[in-house]
Amino acid sequence: MKRVFPIIRAIINLSIQEYGLSCKNAFARTYIPDLEDTIKRQPIPIDIIRDIQKECMKMNDPNRWLIALISDTGMRLSEALGLKVSDIKLDQEIPHLNITPNSARRLKTKSSKRQIPLVGSSLWAAKQLCLNVNSEFAFPHYTIKDYCYTNSASAAFNKWLKTKTNKKFVIHSFRHSIRDRLRSVNCPSEMIDQIGGWSHNNVGTKYGLGFTTTDMLNYMKKLTD
Asked: What is the mean pLDDT of residues 171-191?
């Protein structure tokens, strides 16, 4: 509710301004109490991640390729679903993903546009995709030219994960895990933000070109040790 209401307010405000309406925004002062009842997503322990990755390689199908791809990159689900096969760069000196907006999905923030080195299970999944997918998008059963079926995908993946892990873990938990895993190998906080596409919190991080894929690879390789 708290996430949706600011969007509603902005839509109504823009409509009032664009159409020159003489009315107030009924959502302008909507009060939503802070109940502090949100459930914090927990990172997945590394031993469970390893078990999931082994199961993905054993089953070796498109859904498991996506889970494996996310597991060692920390991508958002929508970012993975909207990948084009051409975004997977295996012929480069450092295999990586190009995360860019396209017709099927936008990116959450400007920082979300980035390159992510491929290591471990994510590299395996990327190779499987390049070998087996013959369409524009890497996951055509969830993505068409103008739309990603993120909700359907999330429900399917979460249902499968519940059969393999504790019920509190969902597909987004891999994103929480990657941050902790990078912290554990002493990866600089600014680099973690760049790898995960998190927004920067200070002005200084917006200067310069950021870290190279070589810089990031040196730390990401440690995730698979």
From this structure: 95
